[in-house]
Amino acid sequence: MNWGMLLALLGAGLAVTMNCIGSSRGVGMVAEASSPVIAEDSSKFGKLLILMLLPGSQGLYGLVIAIITLTQIGILGGDPVTTISRGFFFLLACLPMAVGGLVSALLQARVALTGVNLISKRPQDSSKALTSASLVELYALLSFVTSLLIVIGVNNLPA
Amino acid sequence: MGPSISKYAFAVSGANVYEKSFFRKHDLDKLLAAPSYEAAVAVLADHGWGMPEDTRDLGKILDMELCRAWGWILESAPDPSLFNCLILRNDFHNLKAGIKCLLSDFDVDLHFVRPGTIDPSVMENAIANHEFATLPAPFSKLAEDVYDLLVRTGDGQMADILIDSCCLTEITRAANATGIALMKEEMEIYTATSNIKTAFRAIKTGKDSAFLEKALSSGNTSISRDKLIACADSEKKMDELLTYLSTTSYSSGTKYLSSSPAEFEKWVDDKMISLLLPYRHSPLGPEPMIGFYLGKEAEIRNARIILAAKQNNLPLDAVAGRIRRLYE
Fold first, then answer.
1. Which value does ipTM take for this structure?
2. Does B328 touch chain A (CB under 8 A)?
3. Do A121 and B283 touch (CB under 8 A)?
């Protein structure tokens, strides 16, 4: 059993699944909250669609990290992982995205939900709702960049 | 333990959309300024309220509107039974009305209020056929006791006391069972102030502690039932009661008790609404749903006050002071 490869794959898997869990719950909640507003006034759909999509970005970031990890560990390219320590480095590299993405997707969904209520009551303030929800995206991006840099740099570390 | 708060996204958002049709201050002013009852009803209809065939039946207009709001909770909340304690008092009212109407040959349907957790037809059949066991607890036992009491003694006041104290005790129990802090707090205010009103009226009319023992509900944490009962045994009963109440969290409201019980009721309603306001913009959880329903109740209470005044040609000044705080 190649434990190093197993750990590296676990990291890639966590990056994508945890982010997809957060994004699907987030998008689901915002879409649910948007439906009564759209039922009342379908012209608000465009503004609400952006809010619905925002918590979905973390799923994509997670996927990118997983793909890049696979290109580094011998699955889609790169040298195969042969040691436990290298595999563990890849697992650690994926964690910022896995945890940061999950948490930021759920919190971004909460901000987006308040935005849905704001758009429902005061559609003229929709830009404020979108800006507020976008602020949380920054932290998903920070997690993404951190994981990306570590994943790319792991092979430069001594085995 | 109720459902996870994230399951309330649809319900809360829908309630927010619904709340856009709630009365604002200027809507109330319009209603107050209506020259007649018919004109006031037209204002309500313009505002989107459903109207029964006979618009002179004020109770029906208001019941329809409240049932519509309750309908949204039933339709959208992940666990609507969590909110049952908001309408439990209607079931107890219907039980009281049902038994009394049966014994006095009045049309029971005219005296039922809606919404309730027990279907009025189930309540009516159970009472008419003396099949009290078909009602859920605690209604089955209570209905049997009250029916026996009325048949044996005809003591309507004692029947009212039994039902009212059981109602308040049950509301407190049901609110605690929900595990929702806001629900507990709201229902605590409602039940505790109901007990305060009962104690005040009982002492004012010279009732003793044995009466209060039966009339006061149990389970309140913000007032002491034992202290209220003890006031009825003291020498200066009313002074003793007011002194005790001044030490409770209701002191700022109980000052109105002696001058105007209606003013005290307004104070209670306003206090209940003020507790809801911090949750008004919450995107998730049961709290905005509680606010939605109690906010609608406050609106309906205001409509009742204004329309009843119009029906009876009362001066506007007398009405304006009784208007409750709106959920806005």
1. 0.83
2. no
3. no
